[in-house]
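Regression check, BV8 case 249:
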Amino acid sequence: MPLADNELLECLRSADHIAVLTGPGVSAESGIPTFRDALSGLWSKYDPADLATPEAFARDPELVARWYDERRCMVARCRPNSGHFALAELQRIILSQGKRFTLITQNVDRLHQAAGSKDVIELHGTLWLCGDDVEERGPAFTEFPPRCSCGGRRRPGVVWFGEKLPGHALLQAQKATGSCQLFMSLGTSSVVYPAAGLVDLAIQNGAKLLEVNLQETVSSSRAHWSIRGKTGEVLPRLVAEAFGKDKNP
Ligand code: BV8
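Current build output:
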């Protein structure tokens, strides 16, 4: 039983520019809790939107640093899943045909890059940047918060609630969304702005919207295709059905 209808397969094959927005659902099958269930056990009494703020870091830098260090160490043990690899393969196929492919992520785990995706637009930063220091999957912190070389407090390289997104990243994402023919919203509940606003922009621009999610979201009713399922299972099948061995010149 094919997963996708012929119109979707034709759209994947014919689009001159495909833009993709991923959220925590794409990393869930790698063992990384999604954002709204990121707090379990010890952290269950906290709301991520409370901890992921500059106010929380100012109020209790040790607590916030410990939360992020626990996430960094957990993510460092995780590997890309088949959904990440399918997106890297899709990018390779589309680029090999001389077309455009833009991968925009809300995730901070860098598993897309680990799977081979290139030029990933990270709207919310990454766990691996600490202030200006890039530390590729650095070791666990030994002090909380860790100190910068200047002696100041090092903060996670993520965008907290209430903070502006990196201007260049957001502009690149908006430009790509405004010029694509197919916009894929994958594993995100589409409630965190301004990232979620990209779906509105895609539809305003006349792009077709494909959503893949375990459950219905606020974007589902506006999607041309809304596929219920795990991205780690759906994406490899989509790529195979659209560009199976006999279709990829
Ligand atoms: C800003 C880094 C302004 C930190 C994150 C307009 C309207 C309403 C509110 C606002 C608005 N504009 C701004 C706001 C406020 C706020 C916001 O959007 N709040 C929301 C909660 C209402 N936005 C901001 O504060 C942004 N900043 O706008 O600044 C400004 C302007 C000028 C000057 C100063 C300031 C900053 C937002 C960025 C926050 N940082 N992350 C960290 O990680 O610790 S956000 C966080 O949410 C993560 O990055 C995450 O990736 C992202 C999105 O996650 P969701 O998709 O919401 O996550 P969730 O877990 O809900 O969903 C997972 C989905 O996957 C589910 O649908 C599930 O069904 C699905 N799923 C699960 N498993 C699978 C799956 N699907 C498929 N397969 C599976 N296997």
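Comparison notes: The two ends are 25 Å apart (CA to CA). Residues 33 and 243 are 31 Å apart (CA to CA). No diff flagged against the previous build.
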